[in-house]
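In response to the reviewer comment on reproducibility (Comment 2.3), we provide here a single inverse folding case reported in full, input and output, so that an independent group could reproduce the run without further information from us. The structure tokens appear first.
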């Protein structure tokens, strides 16, 4: 009985995976691009004071 349940779960999972793979790739690429931008902007925001401080000392 337990084996049947796990088999159904696997089929359900595979079905969902197929639906996901059939969804437009543009949306996925947009999501990836957004995540990359957020990541990059976060790094810039974190390191900006450090870079500015370094530039101020370097320009003297």
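Designed residues, in position order:
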């Amino acid at each position: 009985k337990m084996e049947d349940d796990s088999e159904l779960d696997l089929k359900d999972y595979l079905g969902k995976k197929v639906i996901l793979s059939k969804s437009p790739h543009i949306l996925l690429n947009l999501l990836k691009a957004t995540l990359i931008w957020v990541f990059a902007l976060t790094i810039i925001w974190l390191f900006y004071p450090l870079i500015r401080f370094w530039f101020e000392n370097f320009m003297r």
